[in-house]
Amino acid sequence: MDTTFKSGFIAIIGRPNVGKSTFMNKVIGQKIAIMSDKAQTTRHKIQGVLTEENAQMVFIDTPGIHKPKHKLGDFMVNLAENALNEVDAILFMINADEGYGKGDQYILDRLQKVNSPVFLIINKIDLIHPDDLFPLIDQYKEKYDFKEIIPISALQGNNISRLLEVLKSYLPDGPQYYPGDQVTDHPERFLMGELIREKVLELTREEVPHSIAVVIENIEKRNTADTIFIQATIITERKTQKGILIGKQGSMLKSIGKKARQDIENLLGTKVFLELWVKVKKDWRNRQQNLQEYGFRDDEY
Fold first, then answer.
1. Would you tell me which of 106, 161, 165, 231 could form a disulfide with 217, CB atoms 3.0–4.6 Å apart?
2. Same domain, 28 and 112
3. Contact between 94 and 140 (Cβ < 8 Å)
4. Based on the domain organization, do 129 and 203 belong to the same domain?
5. Residue 82 CB-half CA count within 13 A
6. What's the pLDDT at 79?
7. What are phi and psi of 235, to 5 degrees?
């Protein structure tokens, strides 16, 4: 009987909105990365841990690689690119429905410099006709020498188990880095902020979603109450955005709070009282001090 234990770190990279976070949540079996149909949702490296009897796979969901427009964008792209140098395997994910684009070439150029095995993961195959898959595979084969090409549907779970088996075969023998019941390396405080931000992405429009940050100000359990009290501030760049976030008679903020509270209760397994404020910090995405203050630190690289 084979008693070797395999373990390793696997980066998931790709253009914004190809389904990296959906894939991560499906593999881990619970929500640890926020999902949105708006591009550039992920801003940090989110590590998801999958532990099986003979292997532990640590997935790193990186921000979508894109052309930065501000210092926050620079931070996100640096984070994604630096992840490539410290992993045992790389999943380059593309959207089957969109096919090859300029953004893919930008990533492929960077992959020329890495030593880790690279797998092409064609996601959202449920959105295309099976006959359209083969020309897509041929197109990418010409551009890079992938170890393997695996079509999946992260949303429906199609072919995920095969992908995991293939990955395991490439991982080195190694230790179990995290306890078997741990699914992420991020503290609950970080996940709470992300769940609030997800609801802003879901409920607001146009210029608001990407100009916000969420700061968890206070978490406390008062007396013997079985409720956790959380106070959080949503930071935005302009007064007009603050108005949108609060809404008529506070209606938008109430909706954001209600939806976020439900997800945080699921995360913590307890009742939650969530209090939200909105503050304006002009041009915070370009101010180094604000970026550090809101958790975008260079030591994440």
1. 231
2. yes
3. yes
4. no
5. 12
6. 64
7. -95, 135
β-strands 46-51, 55-61 pairing = antiparallel
Q: Closest Cα to residue 55, out of 92, 21, 89? A: 89
pLDDT at 73: 60
Domain count, the chain: 2
Q: Long-range contacts: 244-253, Cβ < 8 Å, 24+?
A: 244/204, 244/205, 244/208, 245/200, 245/204, 245/208, 245/212, 245/278, 246/278, 252/203, 252/204, 253/278
Measured at the CA of 183, the angle between CA 181 and CA 188, to 5 degrees, comes to 110
Determine the pLDDT at residue 72: 59
Q: How far is CA 149 from CA 81, 152, 154, 179, 187, in A?
A: 21, 10, 15, 31, 34
Going edge to edge, which strands form the sheet with 6-14? 46-51, 55-61, 6-14, 89-95, 118-123, 148-151
pLDDT of residue 1: 47
Sign of CA dihedral 72, 100, 8, 117: negative
Residue 226 sits in which domain range? Answer: 188-300
| Residues sharing a CB contact under 8 Å with residue 180, sequence separation 6 or more, in sequence order | 51
Would you state the pLDDT for residue 294?
61
Residues of the chain with pLDDT under 70: 1-3, 31-46, 63-83, 185-187, 205-210, 222-224, 290-301
Contact 59, 27 (CB under 8 A): yes
Residue type, 88: D
**Cα–Cα distance between 298 and 287 in angstroms, integer?**
14
Q: Read off the tokens for 108.
A: 């492929």
Residue 73: which CATH number? 3.40.50.300
The greatest distance separating any two alpha carbons of the chain, rounded to the nearest whole angstrom, comes to: 66
pTM confidence score: 0.63
Handedness of CA 288, 294, 300, 301 (dihedral sign): negative
The residues, any chain, with a CB within 8 Å of residue 149's CB and separated by 6 or more, are 119, 120, 122, 137, 140, 141
